[in-house]
Amino acid sequence: MMHTLNPDRLWARIEALARFTRPDLPWTRRAFTPEFAAARAWLAENFAAAGLAAATDAAANLIGRREGSVPGLAPLAVGSHCDTVPAGGRFDGIAGVAAALEIAQSFAEAGIALRHPLEVIDFLSEEPSDYGASCIGSRAMAGTLTPAMLAARNAEDEPLIAAIERVGGIPGALAEPLRRPGEIAAFLELHIEQNTVLESRGEAVGIVSAIVGIHRLRLTVTGRTDHAGSTPMHARHDALVGAARVIDAAHRLAREMTGNPGYVVATVGRIAVSPNAANAIPGRAEMILDLRSTSDDVLARFPRLLREATAPGLAEMDLAFACELITRARPAPCAPEIREALATAARAQGHAALELPSGAGHDAMQIAEIAPVGMVFVPCRGGRSHCPEEWAEAADIAAGAQVLAAALLDLDARLG
Ligand SMILES: [Zn+2]
Q1: Predicted TM-score of the model (pTM)
Q2: pLDDT at position 2, please?
Q3: How many Å lie between the centroid of ligand 1 and the Cα of residue 223?
Q4: Are 129 and 88 in contact (CB under 8 A)?
Q5: For domain 7-212+331-414, which CATH number applies: 3.40.50.2000, 3.90.105.20, 1.20.1530.20, 3.40.630.10?
Q6: What would the pLDDT profile of 13-35 be if each residue is shown by its tens digit?
Q7: Dist. CA 127 → ligand 1 center (Å)
């Protein structure tokens, strides 16, 4: 028996959510703002219409719940986030919340009683917030929201913990993870791909194999500041030339290593040069390297390989090189049983069940700390995301939601 969603209602909800935007900067719905609160109130009404009892948890995640038929089972959870980056899109996160809502409502209307409780979750502030941290709600659930993150302040000097309270959270409860391992049977998230793999293959649905781990490293090249006019070329210790060699080597290494064994990308997106003067040879260059891979081994080996690759070029100018790990998030493999359920559902609905890694972080990455997770990707036009042009087709979102719904029914029957 094939259960069917209502694609028109799903699309109408995506359009309705888009209207909760800063009027001067579409499509902007930053967490903790009035637009966000209005969207949340609208969502809570829609959760009720979908037969879900809606409430916020201690981290101000909005959760709609319907009880299952078997007492004592942990819930099957599905969702994403409804906040956006400034001038972001109408689909990032939103498609996942709307899909989860449509799945819950169509199950209720079809009289489908799950064995497990079903939870639809709109996580608080997945995008990097005005307080620094990202994935605030899912981190709180998994226990990865640190006291330092909670104490960080926005430009108005409000600490994050006060902002969470302002939108319905309970600060005193955030010292402990909100859920323990075993308290979520499985978490599934639909998201736009934010890349062009599905579009280029003509696929409506993709299954995420793993979400990349992210290491941020501070790379510092130190030379010597000298006069830009009177220092001959052979006598220079130019830290910025050294930094250029490091950046190029990181780029080449990531290209060489990708696919062997995992997905690898490396980006230097920030650099500070001192003295940063037109007539002085740079004495010091400090960079942040954003390194992402689905392979823990690649993340661990990369700094040593980078050091080896750059040693001759740096030694030539007598430059010192330091490499310091500043933050790390582990790769989050999607659970084999959920990947399998999604692949079976996708094939049954005529899709190729293409597997692909996620190079972006998602709420599922945090929840993977405490529960098996799986993700469905749907294409977005040109891979564009975090911009007003972000676009996904109604038919693709509906197809992804349909796969997710079928996988949920399968997991409901199989999981304890
Ligand atoms: Zn997102």
Answers
A1: 0.90
A2: 63
A3: 41
A4: no
A5: 3.40.630.10
A6: 999 999 999 999 999 999 999 99
A7: 7
